[in-house]
């Protein structure tokens, strides 16, 4: 022991991954491992090791270390323990008969496969085998040791009771078995039985030959490889192997039979139903993994060794000691049964040791004398019996809570009497029977006492409501089984009555389970011992079952260590909102502990209100500081603030519905309706000042009240060294205050007005509507209907609508409904197109709890009648006019519109065709929105707001509920698109011209009026087809750009649209009349006929014809350049518009007449004609300037300032289209005769006064486009760029092209209220040459946002009213491809950081060229001033209105006045 005992305790604890306790050990004078030999559980608690798993890890580490060494002679020995007395009729394997090869154990003295304890060493017992880690969702593999030389399985022999030994001594060091190589590590010893762990003086017997069931446990926090090849893990230097946790031995492949489908042999001897007996007999005989039946009088069957444990994990495992009484026949570590009621509490059931087990005869209740031998096991929760001791899953389990009494009935028989059924067993002797009766009575009485203390008795043994229950088909049986998912187990019952009584077939521990979908309705539940193949009634049902079982697995793998510590505070043992016991969820920013049902509603409030985490599964988030925070605040302190004024009528209880919970939580946390207001409420400055003072103290309740009454987490403190309350708390050493502030950095302040409409959705009672009939119905869904539902997925149900409740029954004779939907919960009703599903006419009902019901009928009239009746039952009376519409969708939504954009209002919407009708309670009737005429239709804010822009108004529809909002978005987008091939079905402009036609005409007017052969030349067919398809799909989103689209392709697209138009532009009815009119010889008469025919056309056709002829009229004005006069245009467009083959000259004659007499036929007045002539003249001048090779026609005169914005510093400069920022800078410096020195970096800046920010223009950037985009609050100034030299030095010395680091980020709130609410937030950024990425934290793998660098405009500075945390910040503008603009702010900690980030931005945006290398050449070759103007100071066209007017007047009077000051 010299080597191990002298090992420093710091090294040893580091090997156990518990180095956080080194300081505590050394303060208690524990310097070496030898000093720790006498540590106990209580002593470790005093040392500060408060986590039970850590204490077990240390004790078992010591136990392993000293179990393999000889202790010094003077070591004090603890008193020996008495052995546990063994009971009769217990069979044990003799150690002498078991081959050591099959046990795979190291050999020791005495030939025993296990270590023998010696005298004087009772301190440490043999270790139970560890549990293998669970990797992913795969179940652990079975371990069946191979037999050497093909030797058969050891025979079953009775085990003798080991004699009591003398006081034991520490075991000797194990020797290597012969034949074991020196380089191969010894395998760990096989497990001792649980009662032998307690009675350490007994010799450890071999383990039973059966697969044990893993106890519920949490996954190891350390990463574990999928495969281990038996290699020795790396150890700390100088650490003996005996002091380190051992790794598990290599596990061989599991037997093939473990993957067979589960066809259980259920015991139906308790029932008189012979049909079930016959049905069960057949699959039982076909089971592939069943052995031949044994004689009834034979002894117990042979046992097999199955190891599912690993030594490394038992250190952190939590198991209970066996009961103190000596009534245990033998302890079974494999089974871990627990009551269904316990499992419903949301915790993984602790390991329940077997109290008594043995063989008993059982006879059926029919009075038959045919006894059936069963292996019976009793634990604290259940009495179960099996076919054999090898079976993992029982044939029947009886809850101990349902046992009313146990009686002796003679002939070694006894009867277990429950409230509803009796079970008769027969033992082998009277003594054995009496022992069973005594043990059963004792356990039943203990159970009843426990229920009386907990005030939760189980009536009639019935189980509590499960998380999911219902009938499922199990492969191999005709009849369905009743399955219940509860807590960490899945229970199987014969029927619903047995489920109510609590007497089931078997249950499955889900800590070793894995769920896998097989087909559309089937799924497998896989365990290491069986595969349960289930089949549900529908795909939706299957998804619900799979989800419930996956949650059950997560529950089984959860860790209750954090929960137990949180529950140590009395108020945290009950839900803060409804009072449910043992809540296992929490809101980490509100510091309240809540139940599972309330947690679901908390999530609906959003992370800005509450951040929900699990006490058992989200282990990483539960730091020591957060746990202490819940001890100091918790439910008691939090509810003194949040629930200070809750009326009894509004409070909720555990049975409350989801709707009641949602309304209460919205009022409590989002609105703050019941909170205790702080005396400083409403005074922002005083609140912020008080918060800065509170965070330096330990008064967390005061901080909570200030924060949720409006104090800003990031308010300015006035201290440069500690600019935020978080920094003040850190300086004061208030760790809990820091933790509370960190979790509430993004929390929103409660606002009563947000949920005002939620509290009372209706101000008047809804009308009572009565309707009934058969409907086809699918199971309710939590997501939109993504695929077509077949007819077989619908069930025919009798439905009634009465007193505001829609109920559906199994048939019209049932009195109890299968379910119901309250009218007040309905938020939307939608009618689907015919044949959308297997039932011809279907409609959808959406409710507030995010569920969707799909109903259908074969008759369209009956379906429409149901729609009208349901709509009338839930639509507000103020929106009654919407019911008269032939709507496709109707419901209520929150929106913002008009002049009030601060607060969302609730309105009633109906979608009928392409019109969206809106009704708002208490307001005047509004005109419907014509969706096909929208100027903009977009979704903003991460799919939270739908923006509808008309010419006269804008509407923002908010997605309060995701499910129905998604349906509205899809329906509105579909209605706003083109629906067919006629003109009236296209997207339209405000003037009723198809948007497709308007886009093409605008582009050709701008880019193609002078193109030779316009409309005569054909474009590329593939490009024309693609462009026409895009424009037909959504012309609103298509932007035609010069360079990307060719003029001939666009022209060909317009012609093809008119040729393929349904019913034609002139319509099939009136087309012949237009052709006939060409025969009229009198021009006036012909024009009159054209005007009459024009009036007969539909509105859209008439407006489209006028727009097209107006365009062709412009085209022929440029016939000298494009060679397309009126006649040529008529030849092209005549057959196109009339959709003829071109052989009839009359079609061309009509078009030629319409162009020639455009003004008279279309009544174009003088004002409109003058406007068109001005546009034509402007286009001609622009083309003339372009053709002359100069850009003087595009020159622009503006005011530029030198160094600062003053009157004496302004210069009026003519800006040609080719002038760069460098050339403008040199021009200003030349005018002022300023000589640029070597280290002077003069630049042109764009200054935005409103944003209090400026941007240096790149030297090669064109100035004219910037001038056109400047607002009235922006200007240009030329001044020195002081930081340029430092930026160039940084770029020359940096390594790599990427920049990353933390910055403070804030998003600009827009009119919709989107973006971050208040303050700046720490975010991690990565900037490279292509994009800027934002991450929530350094460890995040997926960016929250990503922007291309080329679309960013970065300005230096942030406006002061935003209260930036530092003075070194950016203002960033970003424009998307859809021309949507975003704005946000970044703050750096130092000025050096600001320069580095800005230099990287400029480097990435300009390809690495920040400053010209040879400025003299650029200056010499820069733009020369127009010689015709000489040195005249030009007239300023920018500036105030009076300045412009005076300058123009002076120039008109005497042009030489401007030359006198030169």
Spell out the key features of this protein.
14-stranded antiparallel sheet, alpha+beta, 1462 residues, disordered C terminus, 45 strands
Chain-wise SSE layout:
Layout: H1 2-5, H2 9-15, H3 22-27, H4 41-47, H5 52-67, H6 100-103, E1 118-119, E2 168-169, H7 194-198, H8 274-285, H9 311-314, H10 340-343, E3 356-363, E4 372-378, E5 382-386, E6 396-399, E7 403-410, E8 413-418, E9 422-426, H11 430-454, E10 468-474, E11 481-486, E12 489-493, H12 496-501, E13 506-509, E14 514-517, E15 522-526, E16 531-535, H13 539-556, H14 561-566, E17 585-587, E18 592-594, H15 596-605, E19 612-614, H16 624-632, H17 634-642, H18 658-670, H19 684-694, H20 700-707, H21 725-731, H22 735-743, H23 756-759, E20 771-777, E21 795-802, E22 805-809, E23 819-822, E24 826-831, E25 841-847, E26 851-857, H24 860-874, E27 889-897, E28 900-912, E29 915-919, E30 929-930, E31 936-940, E32 945-949, E33 954-958, H25 962-976, H26 995-1007, H27 1021-1034, H28 1047-1059, H29 1071-1077, H30 1083-1096, H31 1099-1117, H32 1119-1122, H33 1126-1138, H34 1145-1156, H35 1158-1161, H36 1166-1187, E34 1196-1202, E35 1210-1215, H37 1221-1231, E36 1242-1248, E37 1253-1256, H38 1264-1269, E38 1274-1280, H39 1284-1293, E39 1299-1307, E40 1321-1327, E41 1331-1335, ...
């Amino acid at each position: 022991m010299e080597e191990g005992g002298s090992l420093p305790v710091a090294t040893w604890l580091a090997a156990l991954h518990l180095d956080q306790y080194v300081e505590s050990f050394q303060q208690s004078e524990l310097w070496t491992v030898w000093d720790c030999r006498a540590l106990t559980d209580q002593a470790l608690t005093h040392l500060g090791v408060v986590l039970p798993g850590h204490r077990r890890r240390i004790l078992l580490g010591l136990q392993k270390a000293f179990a393999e060494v000889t202790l010094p002679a003077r070591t004090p020995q603890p008193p020996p323990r008495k052995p546990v007395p063994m009971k009769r009729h217990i069979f044990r394997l003799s150690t002498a008969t078991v081959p050591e090869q099959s046990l795979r154990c190291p050999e020791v003295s005495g030939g025993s496969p296990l270590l023998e304890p010696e005298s004087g060493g009772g301190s440490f017992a043999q270790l139970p085998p560890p549990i293998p880690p669970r990797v992913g969702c795969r179940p652990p593999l079975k371990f069946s040791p191979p037999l050497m030389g093909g030797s058969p399985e050891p025979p079953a022999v009775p085990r003798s009771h080991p004699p009591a030994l003398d006081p034991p001594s520490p075991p000797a060091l194990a020797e290597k078995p012969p034949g074991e190589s020196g380089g191969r590590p010894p395998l760990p010893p096989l497990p001792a039985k649980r009662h032998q762990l307690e009675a350490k003086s007994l010799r450890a017997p071999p383990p039973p030959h059966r697969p044990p069931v893993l106890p519920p446990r949490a996954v190891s926090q350390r990463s574990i490889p999928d495969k281990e090849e038996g290699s020795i893990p790396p150890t700390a230097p100088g650490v003996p192997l005996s002091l380190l946790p051992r790794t598990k031995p290599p596990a061989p492949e599991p037997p093939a039979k473990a993957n067979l489908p589960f066809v259980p042999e259920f015991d139906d001897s308790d029932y008189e139903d012979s049909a079930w007996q016959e049905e069960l007999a057949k699959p039982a005989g076909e089971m592939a993994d069943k052995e031949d039946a044994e004689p009834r009088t034979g002894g117990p069957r042979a046992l097999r060794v199955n190891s599912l444990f690993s030594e490394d994990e038992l250190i952190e495992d939590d198991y209970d000691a066996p009961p103190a009484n000596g009534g245990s026949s033998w302890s079974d570590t494999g089974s871990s049964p627990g009551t269904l009621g316990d499992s419903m509490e949301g915790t993984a059931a602790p390991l329940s040791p077997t109290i008594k087990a043995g063989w008993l005869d059982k006879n059926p209740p029919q009075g038959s004398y045919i006894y059936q031998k069963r292996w019976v096991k009793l634990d604290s929760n259940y009495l179960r019996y099996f076919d054999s001791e090898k079976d993992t899953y029982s044939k029947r389990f009886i809850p101990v809570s349902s046992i009313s009494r146990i009686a002796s009935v003679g002939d070694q028989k006894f009867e277990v009497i429950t409230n509803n059924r009796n079970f008769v067993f027969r033992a082998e002797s009277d003594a054995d029977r009496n022992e069973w009766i005594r043990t059963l009575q004792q356990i039943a009485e203990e159970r009843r006492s426990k229920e009386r203390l907990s005030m939760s008795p189980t009536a009639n043994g019935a189980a509590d409501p499960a998380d999911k229950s219902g009938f499922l088909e199990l492969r191999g049986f005709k009849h369905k089984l009743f399955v219940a998912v509860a807590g960490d187990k899945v229970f199987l019952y014969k029927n619903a009555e047995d489920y109510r009584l609590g007497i089931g077939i078997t249950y499955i521990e889900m800590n070793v389970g894995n769920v896998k979908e097989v087909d559309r309705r089937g799924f497998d539940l896989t365990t290491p011992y069986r595969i349960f193949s289930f089949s549900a009634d529908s795909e939706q049902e299957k998804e619900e079952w799979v989800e419930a079982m996956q949650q059950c697995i997560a529950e089984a793998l959860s860790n209750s260590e954090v929960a137990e510590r949180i529950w140590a505070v009395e108020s945290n043992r009950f839900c803060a909102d409804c009072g449910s016991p043992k809540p296992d969820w929490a809101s980490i920013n509100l510091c309240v502990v809540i139940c599972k049902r309330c947690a679901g509603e908390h999530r609906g409030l959003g992370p800005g209100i509450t951040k929900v985490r699990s006490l058992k599964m989200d282990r990483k988030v539960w730091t020591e500081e957060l746990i202490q925070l819940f001890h100091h605040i918790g439910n008691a302190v939090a509810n003194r603030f949040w629930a200070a004024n809750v009326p009894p009528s509004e409070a909720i209880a555990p049975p409350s519905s989801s709707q009641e919970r949602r309304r209460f939580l919205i009022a409590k946390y989002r609105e703050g309706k019941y909170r205790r207001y702080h005396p400083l409420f409403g005074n922002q400055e005083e609140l912020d000042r008080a918060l800065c003072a509170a965070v330096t103290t330990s008064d967390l309740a005061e901080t909570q009240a200030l924060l949720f009454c409006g104090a800003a987490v990031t308010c300015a403190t006035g201290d440069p060294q500690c600019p935020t309350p978080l920094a003040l708390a850190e300086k004061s050493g208030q760790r809990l205050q820091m933790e509370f502030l960190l979790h509430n950095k993004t929390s929103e302040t409660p606002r009563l007005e947000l949920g005002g409409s939620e509290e009372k959705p209706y101000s008047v009672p809804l009308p009572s509507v009565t309707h009934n009939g058969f409907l086809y119905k699918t199971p309710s869904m939590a997501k939109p209907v993504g695929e077509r539902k077949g007819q077989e997925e619908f069930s025919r149900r009798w439905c009634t609508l009465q007193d505001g409740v829609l109920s559906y029954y199994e048939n019209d004779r049932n009195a109890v409904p299968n379910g119901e939907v309250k009218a007040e919960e309905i938020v939307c009703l939608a009618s689907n197109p015919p044949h959308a599903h297997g039932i011809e006419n279907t409609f959808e009902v959406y409710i507030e709890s995010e569920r969707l019901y799909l109903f259908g009928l074969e008759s369209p009239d009956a379906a429409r009648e149901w729609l009208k009746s349901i709509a009338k039952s839930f639509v507000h009376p103020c929106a009654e006019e919407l019911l008269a519409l032939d709507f496709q969708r109707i419901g209520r939504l929150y929106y913002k519109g008009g002049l009030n954009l601060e607060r969302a209002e609730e309105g009633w919407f109906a979608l009928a065709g392409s019109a969206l009708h809106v009704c708002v309670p208490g307001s005047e009737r509004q005109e419907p929105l014509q969706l096909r005429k929208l100027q903009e239709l977009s979704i903003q804010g991460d799919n939270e707001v739908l923006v509808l822009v008309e010419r006269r108004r804008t509407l923002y529809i908010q997605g309060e509920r995701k499910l129905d909002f998604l349906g509205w978005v899809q329906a509105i987008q579909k209605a706003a698109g083109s629906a067919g091939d006629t003109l009236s079905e296209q997207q339209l402009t405000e003037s009723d011209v198809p948007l497709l036609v308007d886009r093409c005409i605008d582009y050709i007017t701008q880019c193609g009026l002078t193109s030779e052969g316009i409309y005569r030349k054909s474009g590329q067919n593939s490009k024309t087809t693609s462009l026409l398809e895009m424009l037909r799909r959504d012309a609103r989103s298509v932007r035609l750009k010069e360079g990307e689209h060719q003029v001939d392709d666009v022209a060909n697209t317009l012609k093809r649209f008119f040729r393929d138009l349904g019913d034609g532009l002139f319509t099939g009815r009136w087309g012949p009349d237009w052709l006939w009119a060409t025969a009229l010889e009198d021009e006036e008469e012909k024009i009159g006929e054209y005007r009459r025919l024009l009036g007969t056309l539909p509105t859209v056709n008439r407006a489209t014809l006028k727009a097209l002829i107006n365009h062709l009229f412009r085209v022929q004005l440029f016939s000298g350049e494009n060679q397309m006069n009126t006649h040529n245009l008529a030849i092209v467009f005549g057959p196109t518009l009339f959709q003829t083959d071109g052989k009839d000259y009359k079609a061309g004659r009509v078009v030629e007449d319409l162009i020639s007499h455009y003004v008279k036929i279309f009544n174009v007045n003088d004002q409109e004609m003058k406007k068109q002539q001005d546009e034509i003249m402007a286009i001609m001048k622009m083309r003339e300037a372009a053709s002359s090779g100069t850009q003087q026609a595009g020159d622009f005169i503006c005011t530029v300032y030198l160094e600062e914005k003053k009157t004496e510093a302004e210069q009026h400069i003519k800006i040609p289209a080719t002038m760069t920022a460098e050339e403008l800078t040199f021009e200003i410096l030349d005018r002022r005769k300023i000589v640029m020195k070597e280290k002077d970096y003069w630049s042109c800046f764009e200054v935005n006064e409103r944003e209090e920010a400026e941007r240096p223009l790149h030297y090669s950037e064109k100035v004219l486009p910037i001038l056109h985009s400047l607002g009235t609050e922006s200007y240009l100034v030329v001044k020195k760029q002081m930081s340029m030299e430092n930026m160039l030095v940084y770029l020359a010395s940096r390594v790599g092209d990427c920049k990353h680091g933390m910055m403070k980020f804030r998003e600009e709130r827009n009119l919709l209220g989107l973006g971050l609410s208040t303050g700046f937030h720490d975010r991690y950024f990565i900037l490279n040459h292509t994009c800027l990425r934002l991450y929530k934290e350094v460890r995040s793998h997926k960016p929250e946002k990503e922007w291309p660098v080329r679309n960013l405009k970065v300005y230096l500075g942030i406006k002061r009213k935003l209260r930036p945390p530092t003075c070194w910040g950016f203002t960033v503008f970003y424009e998307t491809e859809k021309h949507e603009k975003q704005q946000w702010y970044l703050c750096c900690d130092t000025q050096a950081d600001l320069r580095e980030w800005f230099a990287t931005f400029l480097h990435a945006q300009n390809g690495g060229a920040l400053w010209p290398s040879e400025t003299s050449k650029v200056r010499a070759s820069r733009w020369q001033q127009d010689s015709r103007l000489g040195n005249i100071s030009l007239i300023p066209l920018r500036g105030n209105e009076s300045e412009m007017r005076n300058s123009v007047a002076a120039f008109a009077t005497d042009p030489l006045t401007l030359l006198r000051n030169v």
